[in-house]
Amino acid sequence: MGVETYTTRRGELQQYFDRTAAEAWARLTSTAKVSRIRETVRAGRDRMRATLLSWLPEDLSGRRVLDAGCGTGALAVEAARRGAEVLAVDLSPTLLQHAGERLPPTVAGRVRFHAGDMLDPALGRFDHVVAMDSLIHYAADDMLDALAALASRTSGSIVFTFAPRTPLLSVMHAVGKWFPRADRAPAIEPVAESHLLRGVDGRADLAGMMPARSQRVHSGFYTSHALELRRR
């Protein structure tokens, strides 16, 4: 992994989600009224979350799950409701505070929130890893390095999303540059699925993982592609 590239981008993401847009992001992930554009993003994220959760076992009792880039914790809560022990990690302490406030008492004992790097080896080993829209800001090589780091500590599957390289998405990203700077997230790095699959296939440190299910979700200003890597 290009350490300077990864750590620089990680710092930008922490700054954005913890300070610049923390409240806007908390509102987006709530049931509060938002603009029509953000309604499409909210709907797309809801569909993507449901997709990733559908790729995990229905019964997660006794399984340890890493929610890598958990934001305000919606996915972590659903995994815990299935019986998982969830470590929910995010760079933003502010978003984790919102997540803690929203945590239902019925699953409070099965979700632990942690502010830090999702790739930290000290987090331990997991049965399943979910990374929803938390790798989309990294270049393809850094994304593959991150997947390899996660795979080395995962016994079951990794389900994650990337920004697909499509003409429509490129146009939408260009339009997004006209938004007020305070509302603008760090750049998303589009990746062609074929390029990502070749990268997974060509790396010795990902040899134990096999690409499985694949699904794209498009909703207005939200486009993201889910991919499952399953232990062979």
Layout of helices and strands:
Elements: H1 3-20, H2 22-28, H3 36-54, E1 64-68, H4 74-81, E2 85-90, H5 93-102, E3 111-115, E4 126-131, H6 140-151, E5 154-162, H7 167-176, H8 193-201, E6 209-219, E7 222-231
Parallel strand pairs: 1-2, 1-4, 2-3, 4-5
Antiparallel strand pairs: 5-7, 6-7
What composes the largest sheet? 7 strands, mixed
Number of DSSP E strands: 7
Q: Report the sheet-strand fraction.
A: 15-25%
Report the order of strands and helices: HHHEHEHEEHEHHEE
C-alpha end-to-end distance: 24 Å
Q: Roughly how many Å is the radius of gyration?
A: 17 Å
| Relative helix content | 40-55%
Instruction: Give me the secondary-structure category.
Output: alpha/beta
Give the strand order, joined by hyphens, for the main sheet.
Answer: 3-2-1-4-5-7-6
Give average pLDDT, whole number.
Answer: 91
User: What is the global morphology?
Assistant: globular
Explain the overall architecture.
This protein has a 7-stranded mixed β-sheet with strand order 3-2-1-4-5-7-6, with helices on both faces. It has helices at 3-20, 22-28, 36-54, 74-81, 93-102, 140-151, 167-176, 193-201, and strands at 64-68, 85-90, 111-115, 126-131, 154-162, 209-219, 222-231. The model has no long low-confidence stretch (mean pLDDT 91). It is globular. It has 232 residues and is of the alpha/beta class. The chain contains 8 helices and 7 strands, in the order αααβαβαββαβααββ.
